[in-house]
Design a protein that fits this description.
The structure is a homodimer of 206-residue chains. Chain A is mainly α. Chain A is built from 10 helices and no strands. Chain A binds a DNA duplex (30 and 30 nucleotides) through helix 1 and helix 3.
Chain lengths: 206, 206
DNA sequence: GCGGTTAGTTGCGTGGCGCGCATCTTTGCG
DNA sequence: CGCAAAGATGCGCGCCACGCAACTAACCGC
């Protein structure tokens, strides 16, 4: 059961995370003080650090939540589905756009994208983002171990699979961001990346 | 030609990096102030930030340097060697132990290993370490693109290969650190990891 | 060698951050 | 209703990253 207590906590966390991202994309990383984020979330500055141990962590928090969902998604896939097929689908499931962004008016949307781009370029954030990915990867490795009946402690296999899958997603995203317009649909890139990895990345593909 | 200027700079950088690691492994991350590191390297605290933009970055600097060498090593491999063979060898080449550590007396060595372990567990450092890996990965992708005649801008292939290789090394290291004694030799783990990745990580290996 | 040029070092000052601690408020539960 | 536990807040401290303005040392053409 979800007590009022738990729910409020989750809400505050979400509010802080969203405020952190929103303000950063808008003004740039170091024009945002922790104080601003706390205020935007309607909470005291001191409380901010009860939820996140740094500004960067707050900004990366949504990325973390999203990445973690991949592991959950994998567990939902039918057990008889081939592993790499299931992984691909689990990864794809994370790329449905959120409602806050979807509901944005078009001009604002363009600025938003630009803001996010500069945000991702911020060195101080990259580390935290990568940490989030690493955490999710560990969780994914667990899911893979369960699904394949391998043992995390003795086999490298589940970790390798999780790492390769993470890498495929990361590369697809990087490629998506790099190749400006017209953008290849991200779903296509992800499917392709997974296929290449599952094929063992044989020397020159063409 | 290497001017005195350049050499001194490199030396200072190395001294700072080494001091940072050494002190941290010895006393723990937050019992080391920037001031201490600077002093140990014989330089003013202010100068520290002319070389590194954070304590964490200084500590990760050697990891970065080492990781970057993988790309260089790949370029040295004979051009007719199969790609994955060359990658494996390039990765293996980075794991010859450094002289500072090799020359350590045995009891000190044990403490050193323990220190490094706790250091790697420090959240504040993981991000920076991952950033270093990411930087090296980009460089490796370049080398792969050159070797295979693919194009970074249009093909995901070189990035995927670089990412998969990085992942293989990372997993091998993680596995090595986890499985305490008796440790499987790291070379063996790396070779194995690369082989699995190059084989496309087919579902359950046994 | 010699003086100007440029790169690098240092001290100082500032704004911000992360967090321990003590206190007050709210929620959960019998 | 009343108590115990969880959380929010205010305060204060030590540290850190970095801009700025001297100062010093290597470099380079002559």
């Amino acid at each position: 059961m979800t007590g009022l207590r738990e729910r409020k906590k989750a809400e505050t966390r979400a509010a802080l995370g969203w405020a952190a991202i929103h303000l950063t994309a808008e003004r740039g990383y170091d024009n945002v003080r922790v104080e601003d984020i706390a205020e935007a979330a309607g909470v005291s500055p001191r409380t901010f650090n009860n939820y996140f141990s740094s500004k960067a962590e707050a900004i990366a928090s949504r990325h973390l939540d999203r990445s973690l969902r991949t592991a959950a998604a994998l567990r939902e896939r039918p057990a008889d589905e081939p592993l790499w097929e299931a992984l691909t689908q689990a990864a794809l499931a994370q790329f449905t756009r959120g409602p806050e962004v979807e509901a944005m008016p078009s001009p604002a949307h363009a600025q938003w994208v630009a803001g996010v781009r500069t945000m991702l370029a911020e060195p101080a954030l990259q580390g935290e983002r990568l940490r989030a990915v690493a955490t999710a990867e560990a969780e994914l490795a667990n899911a893979v171990a369960e699904r394949t009946g391998t043992d995390l402690a003795t086999d490298m296999y589940p970790r390798l699979v999780a790492a390769a899958a993470s890498a495929a997603v990361a590369v697809a995203m990087a490629h998506y961001l790099d190749s400006a317009d017209p953008p290849t649909p991200i779903e296509h890139l992800i499917t392709d990346a997974f296929a290449q990895v599952a094929a063992g990345l044989p020397a020159p593909p063409r």
